UniProtKB/TrEMBL annotation:
Classification via InterPro entries: EF-G-binding_C, EF-G-binding_N, EF-G_N_sf
UniProt-recorded Gene Ontology molecular function terms: translation elongation factor activity
Domain Elongation factor G-binding protein C-terminal treble-clef zinc-finger: 100-202
Organism: Paenibacillus pinisoli
Keywords assigned by UniProt, alphabetized: Elongation factor, Protein biosynthesis
Residue intervals of the Elongation factor G-binding protein N-terminal domain: 4-86
CDD domains registered for this protein in UniProt: FusC_FusB
Protein name: Elongation factor G-binding protein
Pfam families the UniProt entry points to: EF-G-binding_N, FBP_C
Length: 215
């Protein structure tokens, strides 16, 4: 079987598996625990609308599990089917940000790309943040101002964490716009991109933001 699970989907599976584990270890009513398990299996299947029967059978093994050890083994058994984030060289990353001189980009070859939904990093010296994502099958990059804020809710992973306001200038100009036309879009995002990647479960907000800025 080929790889077919993306990082955000794996995070969703982990969350649902954790709910099943919690129900079977803390709920005395077996009917309630079974209801949680059925709901978890349904949520996982819904996240894979194009999955084959073989893939759904693999994902659906959670329906027969309940103990911590069984669920841990289940999650490990899924890791070989995780898709890799594209391996971009520093030169390829630089092409996504042609106006940025001396771009300091991460070494994607040195990280476990199975657990990346997007690559994000900051340049503290310039107060800029950079995001790279595989949008519609092609790598795309966003650059914006990085303004640290107090704790808040990240628009990507929906956790209450240390966040920053990420403001990116729109690449789209209306017809007959003046040369000075300027529009920026901002969102609060986790200051720690690695932690954000470990918890993001839905790519809809990320893709919507990229399309909003890039057009």
């Amino acid at each position: 079987m080929n790889t077919f699970i993306r990082n955000h989907q794996y995070n969703l599976i982990k969350k649902q598996a954790g709910m099943v584990q919690h129900a079977y270890t803390s709920v005395s009513d077996r009917r309630v625990a079974e209801s949680v398990r059925l709901g978890a299996c349904a949520a996982i299947a819904e996240a894979f609308p194009d999955a084959t029967k073989e893939q759904l059978d693999l994902l659906g093994r959670l329906a027969d599990l309940g103990t911590t050890e069984e669920i841990d083994k289940y999650l490990l058994s899924l890791e070989p089917y995780l898709e890799l984030f594209p391996l971009l060289t520093p030169k390829e990353v630089s092409r996504l940000f042609p106006k940025v001189k001396k771009l300091k980009s991460p070494d994607l070859a040195a990280v476990d790309r199975r657990f990346l939904t997007y690559a994000g990093w900051t340049d503290i010296g310039t107060g800029r943040m950079f995001l790279v994502y595989d949008l519609d099958g092609k790598p795309a990059g966003l650059e914006g101002r990085f303004t640290p804020a107090k704790k808040g809710v990240c628009f990507l992973c929906n956790r209450h964490q240390e966040v920053a306001l990420f403001s990116a200038v729109s690449k789209v100009k209306p017809a007959n716009a003046s040369p000075d036309y300027y529009k920026a879009f901002g969102q609060y995002i986790c200051s720690d991109s690695d932690a954000c990647n470990r918890h993001i479960k839905d790519i809809t907000p990320l893709e919507k933001f990229f399309h909003l800025v890039l057009g």
